Amino acid sequence: MKKIIAINAGPRKGWNTDQLVSSAVKGAQDQGCEVEYIDLYRLPKFTGCVSCFGCKREPGFGTCICKDGLYDVLVKVRNADGLIIGSPNYLGDLSAGFRAFYERIIFQSLTYNKERPCCNEHRIPVLLITTSNCSEDYYDMIGYTRMLENYQSNFERFVGPTHVFICGDTLQVNDYSIYNWTIFDPQAKKEHRDQTFESYQQKAYKMGMEILTAAE
Ligand SMILES: Cc1cc2nc3c(=O)[nH]c(=O)nc-3n(C[C@H](O)[C@H](O)[C@H](O)COP(=O)(O)O)c2cc1C
Fold first, then answer.
1. 93-94 and 82-90 as β-strands: parallel, antiparallel, unpaired?
2. Ligand 1 centroid to residue 138 C-alpha, Å
3. Residue 216 falls within a domain, yes or no?
4. Which of 10, 36, 149, 150 has the CA that lies 20 to 30 A from 91?
C-alpha cells in the first residue's frame, strides 16, 4: 500500500488549511493510500535548519540529523510515496512552521556538489496547499505567485514533482464583529465562504486522489 504523509503547517485545527489538507487526505485514502496526518504545531519543539552540516557528510549524508520534533517527520517523508503539505500565508510568505520543515527537507538533499547537486534518489510527488486572506486575483500583483513558484521549484528539484493549490479570500474568523478589522467586509467574506469553500474542498479532494498519478 502506498504511504502518504500529510502535514498541516498551520496552527489552527479545523480551519481553512486543515480542512483542505483533510480533503486531499480523503482523496488519497479513497485511492487506496495509507495516509499519516501530522499537525506541525502539535509536535514537540522543533526549529529550522541549524546549519550543523550533518547532512553533508557520512554517516548522515542526505538526511537531517537534528534530533528535535521534526526528526521523525523527515524520516517518514523520506520513506513515503507522496507528501501533502498545507500552510496559511503569513505576511506574504508561508508559515514559520512550514519554513522550518522546508529548510530541513530541502537542505538535506542539497549537496553543494557540481556533478550531483541533489542526492535524493527517492523522488515523491508533492501537493502544496496554501490559504490566504488575499484573493487569488491579486497573487501576481503582490508577489505571491512568485513566492509560490519558488517553493514549487525547490520542491521539484529536491523532493519531487509538485503541484500547488491556492485557496484565497478565506474566512479568517467566524465573528468579525468582535474585532476592529475595518478593511474587511464580513458579510462578503461569509458569502464568499458559503458559496465557494465546498468547491475548493472538492478540488483538494481530487488533487489528493490524483497525487500519485498526476504528478509528472
Ligand atoms: C500572522 C498572520 C499573518 C497573515 N498574513 C497574511 C498575509 O500577509 N496575506 C494574506 O493574504 N493573509 C494573511 N493572513 C491570513 C491567513 O493567511 C488566512 O486567514 C488563512 O486562510 C488562515 O489559515 P487557517 O484558517 O488555516 O488558519 C495572516 C494571518 C496571520 C495569523
1. antiparallel
2. 15
3. no
4. 36
The span from the CA of 166 to the CA of 152, in Å, is 12
CA of 116 to the centre of ligand 1 (A): 38
Residue 51 in any domain: the answer is yes
Class of residue 112 by CB neighbours under 10 A (exposed 0-12, middle 13-18, buried 19+): exposed
State whether the beta carbon of 19 lies less than 6 angstroms from ligand 1.
no
Mutate to test the pocket of ligand 1, among 15, 133, 144, 176 (most ligand atoms within 8 A of CB): 133
Q: Considering its fold, how many domains does the chain have in total?
A: 1
The domain containing residue 57 runs over which residues?
A: 3-209
Residue 172 CA, ligand 1 centroid: distance in Å? 7
Instruction: Look at residue 214 and tell me if it is in a domain.
Output: no
Within a domain: 16: yes
Note down pLDDT in tens along the chain; length 216 residues.
999 999 999 999 999 999 999 999 999 999 999 999 999 999 999 999 999 999 999 999 999 999 999 999 999 999 999 999 999 999 999 999 999 999 999 999 999 999 999 999 999 999 999 999 999 999 999 999 999 999 999 999 999 999 999 999 999 999 999 999 999 999 999 999 999 999 999 999 999 999 999 755
State the Cα–Cα distance between residues 185 and 196, nearest whole angstrom.
Answer: 16
Bridge partners, residue 129, by sequence? 86, 165
Q: Which amino acid is at 180?
A: N
C-beta of 98 in contact with ligand 1 (< 6 A): no
Indicate whether residue 168 lines ligand 1 (CB < 6 A). no
Whether 193 is in the pocket of ligand 1, judged by its Cβ within 6 Å, is no
